[in-house]
Amino acid sequence: MEILHNLFLGFAAILQPETLLFCFIGVLIGTLIGVLPGIGPVTAQKLMDYRVKQGRFTSVDELKDAKLVNSSTYEKVKDLVEVR
Asked: Residue 2 — very low, low, confident or very high, per pLDDT cuts 50/70/90?
């Protein structure tokens, strides 16, 4: 019975809103890494850190203006992303 109790406590901890948010952010970073050319783990983390600190992106140009990606990466991704 103790095993079931511990299992229940584990699920209760995982299903907290902040834990789910971190899981979502992890999935988003993984998606960025897998889809956008020139975006690796370091750049993806920079994008997420910027987004958390500054809020929503206002334009695609912000990627370059805020020096989140270099010019060649910006040219590769500018037509693949949009700000809504």
From this structure: confident
Whether 22 contacts 30, CB under 8 Å? no
Q: Which domain holds residue 52?
A: 18-77
Q: Residue 11, Cβ neighbours under 10 Å: how many?
A: 9
The identity of residue 48, as a single letter, is M
Q: Is residue 25 part of a domain?
A: yes
pTM: 0.59
| pLDDT above 90 for 30 | no
Burial category of 65 from C-beta neighbours within 10 Å (exposed 0-12, middle 13-18, buried 19 and up): exposed
13 inside domain: no
